[in-house]
Amino acid sequence: MRNWQWLLVYLAIAMACATVSIARAESGSDPRPYGITERVAPPPYLKMPHRSNGKMPLLLSQTGAFNSTRDLIPSKGLIPYDLVVPFWSDGAGKLRWASVPAGKIKYSSTGEWTFPKGTVFVKTFALPTDGADSTVKRRLETRLLVCDDSGAVYGVVYKWRADNSDADLLDTSRTEEILIKTASGETRSQTWYYPSRPDCLACHNAKTSGVLGVKARQMNRTFAYPSGVTDNQLRAWNHAGLFMPAVNDAELAAVPTLAAADDSSRTLQDRARSYLDANCAQCHRPGGTVAYFDARYDTPLEKQELIDGPILIDQGIDKPRVISPHDVWRSVVFMRVNTVDDIKMPPIARETIDQKGVQLLRDWITSLPGRAVLDPPTMSPAGGSFAAPVAITLSVAQPGADIRYTLDGSTPGLSDARYESPIKLSGPAVLRARAYQDGFTRSITVQEVFIIGK
Which of 77, 269, 289, 354 lies at a C-alpha separation of 20 to 30 Å from 384? Predict the structure, then answer.
């Protein structure tokens, strides 16, 4: 090629670059590379049936979700993504992909999105099993959520084989004990719950538009794409032409976003409300479960009925609230997150307590203005059956607090017996106790049942 020909090519390239730069400047678009270089529309439904009553593939490798099932290499067109605040799943990590067929996602900066029929969400769970090495994980299950041809969704679960060669379809729920090696080298067991198809619909239903996590306030975060580009997910999906109506970068930048629990740039209140949104809002919303409060972050705090919000079921404590300012003992949301008993929330597929989430809620509640609150007394030994008379010791954390108790199951008040020495029981009793001290809100009442003798 002659010099003048090279000059023409150079000028053409320069003019094209200038045109692109001008267009970007005029549109106000961001010149950085996008994470999704092109949109490849996968087939609708992959290889899943169009409705839940269809014939389900028996193996994960037959669903069309992966090119290499063992290596978790997704099929062409599946888009990896992550959330700002993931739902607590007993400490498991998750890999997520969305298979969005030809069509557009009905986008909204608040609330849920509506996805084309045949969209499939693929989520794989892996549990760390070595306390000394967080990279050691056991692959447990892959869940598929399918947007069916009726406008609803259905979910299925595939349980991974021990050698990770494939995963088998489950036809019902199942529990499994997983062995975990602690940092000290000891071994403990953790229960893992594999949900059933009806379990999936307890949260993924018409009241929530079916799809839960994939929404603006959860997706507005950076993500490292396989292309090697780190990009904001909303920006990348928008650039790939996934949204309708059209959105510009300035609108995306203004989207209200959840706050990760460890994001110190956000307030404690933002982080706590974000946690409740991710873990509770699927049910606690208008038209959802029978309860008074709205856990959605999109709802202004003053309209959520969270702080000092009324309670439908009092759990046997005095003056309970959804969130009782400065008082974790009367905050029923905190109580139900901080247990694995029958009252636990969320009620499905949670066998352990999210200690970091509990601490976040505790920090927020105790940061709210209010009177100091006494911790309830502790009893030793705890209630149960005893062959011989037993002496019960009561104690309280606050020095100088006054403990009052009853043995007939009635609520103890200031006129009831004061605890001064161990209580000797020679027959059955319902021991209830409460702590009092000037300048403090009295403790909640604690109770233990003692059966003495045969």
Answer: 354
CA distance 238 to 221: 13
One domain, residues 230 and 171: yes
Number of domains in the chain: 4
- Residue type at 41 in one-letter notation: A
Judgement on whether residues 27 and 93 belong to the same structural domain of the protein = no
- The structure tokens listed for 392 are 């019960």
Statement to judge: residues 21 and 85 lie in one domain: no
Instruction: Kindly provide the residue ranges of all beta strands, DSSP E only, lying in 30-186, ordered along the sequence.
Output: 66-68, 73-74, 79-81, 93-99, 105-106, 120-128, 137-147, 153-160, 167-169, 174-181
State CA 221 to chain mean position distance: 17
* Radius of gyration for the alpha carbons in the chain, expressed in angstroms and rounded: 28
CB of 220 within 8 A of CB of 257? yes
Instruction: Say how far apart CA 282 and CA 288 lie, in whole Å.
Output: 8
Is 246 found in the same domain as 317? Answer: no
262 in a structural domain: no
Sheet containing 93-99: order of strands: 79-81, 93-99, 120-128, 137-147, 153-160, 167-169
Which residue segment(s) compose the domain that 433 sits in?
Answer: 378-452
Q: Kindly give the interhelix angle for 268-280 and 355-367, rounded to the nearest 10 degrees.
A: 130
Q: Model-level pTM?
A: 0.89
Q: What is the mean pLDDT of each run of 10 residues along the chain (454 residues)?
A: 38 32 37 86 97 97 98 97 97 97 95 96 97 94 97 97 98 96 93 94 84 96 94 95 91 94 97 97 85 93 96 90 97 96 89 97 97 97 96 96 96 96 96 97 96 86
Q: How many CB atoms lie within 10 A of CB 245?
A: 8
